[in-house]
Amino acid sequence: MKEKQKIIEISGLSVTFEQYDPHSPRRVNLPVISDLNVSVHAGEIVAVVGSSGSGKSLLAHAIFDLLPANAKVGGNIYYLGEEMRRERIRELRGREIALIPQGTGALNPLMKTGRQITNGRKDDACVGEMRNLMRQYGLPRNVEKKYPFELSGGMARRVLLLTALMSHPKLIVADEPTPGMEESLAGQVLADFRNYADQGNGVLLITHDLRAALGVADRIAVFYAGTTLEEAAASDFDRENLLRHPYTRALWRAMPEHGFAVVSGSQPYVKDLPEGCPFGPRCPDKSPACAGEIPVRSVRGGRVRCVCPGEEEKRGEPDGM
Amino acid sequence: MAEEAANVIRFLLKKMLKAAVLLAGVSILAFALVSLSPIDPVRANTGTTAYLRMSPEKRAQMDSYWGKELPAAERYLNWAADFVRGDMGMSQKYNRPVAEVISEKAGNSLALMGTAWVCSGILGFILGAVAGCFRDRRPDKVIRGGALLLAATPSFWLALLLIMVFSVWLRWLPFGMNIPIGVSHSEVGIADRIAHLILPALTLSLTKTADITLHTRQKMLDIMESDYVLFARARGERGSRIVRRHALRNILLPAITLQFSSVSRIFGGSVLVEQVFSYPGLGQAAVDAGLGSDVSLLLAITVFSALLVFTGNLIADLLYGIADPQIRRGRSHG
């Protein structure tokens, strides 16, 4: 496959919150995201999959420069190969990059839906396009005259989706776009992302739902405790042995069709991150090297942050945990 | 449509019933407090020397004039029966019908409170909104600092300060009253009346402005950090457009509530300010009536002010119904 153009490349992203510690006069730094890497090529859907509390939404906020003032951002974000600095992000957002936010509280409670979808434009072309999209997504015509509190949760999410589609962006960053929707509708939304990506655009799908992501995404970035542990092709999830990181393999085994195996322990809070690999304390293959610096390596076409990434054939024990 | 009308009528009936209960409660409470007051109205109003020199017949006459021989409950019921019929009685202190005293004093007070209410509302809203938009930057620091300073300043002290600066040192404005001394009411022009109004209105406005500024600023901060403003930024909307399209729209509702609920506080503040400036308004009359056991006048003022505050809140409710789609549409949706 020919290397397609990278729409967005996030490399070594870190987000740190500066906070006042109630127990000490000094400020403490809370590293919520560290050394995160993910990229989206033209025609691609990349899903960032992680459990809640892993900092996924902050990734979206970092891309759109929406983090609060006490957040420090490090690393680089490239858009079409060009480094995105703050001013550039402000030019691009809403035009070439669009966000579908997680909560329906993103809709202004005192503004009618139609004006929010068109972002205030009233010309016929824009309104016509909105009505087309509304029909396509099963939103009744009168929704445009309604206020957000009059919409159901599923409708409000579709409205958020439409706000993104209206701006014809090159990249859509969708933060949990489907919860609250009926399954058929959620399927339609994901199918539309597919369709949208196939036209040469990119979609960064942020979700906790690995199964839904696997159904539509080309690549999966596994997100854990503020960083990406593995970037794998969606097809790598066909077999456990194709996966590289022990955590990804644990996720795979936790899927219903693979036996629902639950790994013990829980994701560490950013304040008590272990040295080295954040998954170390829960990892079945932990070794002393895991406490040191963990390099990102390319293995079998994917990338993994592990000192002893899983071999394709060596380890296949069905229940090692 | 018919259902809508029925809803409105039900709403109004409910409010009127509430108002009636409120007024009855407030007047009973005020009456009870005056009856329990240790002040002897005859002594208080004639002066101790005159009282001691009085003949027993004169004293009996005075006692009956001030209504001391009837039991309290009966006096209250007499008063209430007359009041409901529209007869507010005589003010014993001013020796004029209460209605006349009130209408004169209320005119003065309403000019003072109205000016302060409008000025503090507009100024407070603008300053608060600006401070909220410029969070932690210079305009915010200046506005917030000033507002905190003013809010912490007792209004009587501020009044004295203003009198000292503008009346005593600069001699720009009169130090008190509502008309120049030694001039009869009919000869006083509008310019003179305004000149007398400025300092009391300024005192009252300044403290209220500080209040409203701080409240509005806080609301503005909440809104500027809300998810919908964040999303507007994600969609490429910028500064002034966000403020116009999102923030102002959402800050208006709390501002309306704040402004109309501040009627009661303006009224309370005016009592103090009228005292300091010897401004002949309702507040001063209320203090006179209370200290002199002028029951009819005191009750009338109490009822009048309760009605004023009630109306303020009622207007806030009504405006909310118009301005907030959640209430407006929620009602018609059932």
Can you put this structure into words, describing what you see?
- The complex is a heterodimer of chains A (321) and B (334).
- With 321 residues, chain A is α/β, with parallel strands linked by helices.
- Chain A folds into two domains: 6-96 and 169-305, P-loop containing nucleotide triphosphate hydrolases (Rossmann fold, 3-Layer(aba) Sandwich); 110-166, no CATH class.
- In chain A, 25% of the residues lie in helices and 26% in strands.
- Chain A is built from eight helices and twelve strands.
- Chain A has helices spanning 56-63, 86-92, 113-117, 124-136, 153-166, 183-198, 210-216, 246-254, and strands spanning 6-20, 27-41, 44-49, 71-79, 82-83, 97-100, 171-175, 202-207, 219-224, 227-233, 296-299, 302-305.
- Chain A has an eight-stranded mixed beta sheet with strand order 6-7-8-3-9-10-12-11, sandwiched between helices. In chain A, strands 2-1-4-5 form a four-stranded antiparallel beta sheet, with helices on one face.
- In chain A, strand 4 and strand 5 form a beta hairpin.
- In chain A, helix 4 packs across helix 5 (153-166).
- With 334 residues, chain B is mostly helical.
- Chain B has helices at 2-36, 41-46, 48-53, 56-65, 72-84, 98-133, 138-151, 155-169, 190-224, 227-234, 239-276, 282-291, 295-323, 325-333, and strands spanning 90-91, 96-97.
- A two-stranded antiparallel sheet of chain B has the order 1-2.
- The two termini of chain B are 13 Å apart.
- The mean pLDDT of chain B is 86.
- At the A-B interface, loops of A face helix 10, helix 11 and helix 14 of B.
